[in-house]
Design a protein that fits this description.
The radius of gyration is 15 Å and the shape is globular. Strands 3-2-1-4 form a four-stranded parallel β-sheet, sandwiched between helices. It has 127 residues and is α/β, with parallel strands linked by helices. Helix 4 links the parallel strand 2 and strand 3.
Length: 127
């Protein structure tokens, strides 16, 4: 309804650009360094794991607030989208989890801290 509004158009452009940069970084890590783990901090409504071929050969750990994770996990079934088995939803409240929670929660979901990984906060600018 408001897709042509300049502020929303700019926000959409920023989100697409950030996602593309992060996904290219992951593709390069997979191709050049054999990295097959990705942690998406603050995954929110990111759809990478359901639309990218990389998600079929890479373990993707989507970390976000438990309420957001619960809501998001119900959406693919409603939309007829299959979530690849390589995706793990990691519920984590960063305000209550403590200093070790950002590493402990993905590890509890199968993340291997001894293997290299790409950490991608899709909402963060690429560096």
């Amino acid at each position: 309804m408001f897709g042509s509004h300049p502020i929303l158009a700019g926000a959409r452009t920023a989100a697409v650009t950030r996602s593309r940069c992060a996904e290219e970084r992951l593709a390069e890590a997979v191709a050049r360094r054999g990295i097959h783990q990705c942690v998406v901090l603050g995954a929110g409504l990111d759809s990478f794991a359901c639309r990218s071929e990389l998600a079929h050969s890479t373990r993707v750990f989507e970390v976000d607030h438990p309420h957001i994770q619960e809501w998001k996990q119900a959406r693919p079934a409603v939309a007829g989208i299959t979530v690849p088995p390589t995706v793990s939803f990691v519920p984590l409240n960063l305000e209550q989890g403590g200093a070790r929670a950002p590493t402990a929660a993905p590890a509890a979901a199968g993340f291997d801290p001894a293997r290299p990984a790409v950490s991608a906060g899709w909402a963060s600018p690429c560096t």
